[in-house]
Design brief:
InterPro entries: Beta-barrel_OMP_2 (IPR025665). It holds the Pfam family OMP_b-brl_2. The chain is mainly β. The protein is 8% helix and 64% strand. It has a single domain, classed as Porin (Beta Barrel).
Length: 228
């Protein structure tokens, strides 16, 4: 079994088994919903390598969270999101500064996260999120200037190549702070997403053996309790 499948399975078990198994703690049934928004700082792992810099995209959508218990000082739960997210890459060549190529790729994404928090019920909590994430490709936009017509020693195979694998999956995780108030819960966090899938075909006869997304995600979330 490939190592990426082992990692994905382990994280999936973490999300759905850990929050519900430790029933010796202080049980809770806190269900909250809300919305989130932020930015992605994107890059793509290509093999052969394509030189690039981070591409900024938007990330936002709906959030639902269930807190099942408090085990000693650790609050355990699970969180799921339904997001619109922009990935892609922005090519940058120091030897050819006039070259411009940008690809923005739009996805619907569903992170399935274990939520582990430490702190008071009212006030500030520190939390950790980790788990698998799946995504579905929607569309893309490409920006390319005429300077490429005079260049022969830069990789261009990726420019006119359409997305071949529209299902994206990987692992994501991060940490942040939550302010819990009577008016709702306010979260600020940073994450990193590492794709285990390739959006171009990667058989031996294909040009790219690796074409996978990576993103630093910074976002804010607002949640209000439906059940405490």
């Amino acid at each position: 079994m490939k190592i990426k499948n082992i990692i994905g399975a382990a994280l999936l078990l973490t999300v759905w088994v850990l929050p519900g198994r430790a029933q010796i703690g202080e049980q809770r049934q806190n269900f909250a919903v809300g919305f989130n928004g932020g930015i992605n700082l994107n890059s793509v792992s290509f093999s052969p390598t394509v030189r690039q810099k981070n591409l900024m995209g938007i990330n936002g959508g709906l959030t639902a969270r269930y807190i099942s218990e408090k085990y000693f000082s650790m609050i355990c739960g699970a969180q799921v999101e339904l997001n619109f997210s922009q990935h892609g890459w922005d090519e940058f060549y120091e030897d050819f500064p006039d070259l411009q190529y940008t690809r923005k790729m739009n996805y619907v994404e569903i992170p399935l996260l274990a939520h582990l928090a430490f702190g008071r019920d009212r006030g500030v909590q520190f939390f950790i999120h980790a788990g698998p994430q799946i995504g579905f490709f929607l569309s893309d936009t490409r920006t390319k200037n005429d300077a490429w017509e005079s260049v022969t020693n830069a990789t261009t195979e990726q420019h006119d190549k359409n997305v071949e694998n529209k299902f994206d999956y990987g692992i994501t995780g991060g940490a942040g702070l939550e302010l819990r108030t009577k008016a709702g819960n306010f979260l600020v966090e940073g994450r990193y997403y590492y794709a285990l899938s390739d959006f171009y075909k990667s058989t031996k006869k294909d040009y790219f053996s690796r074409s996978a997304h990576g993103a630093i995600v910074v976002k804010m979330t607002y949640l209000f309790d439906l059940k405490k």
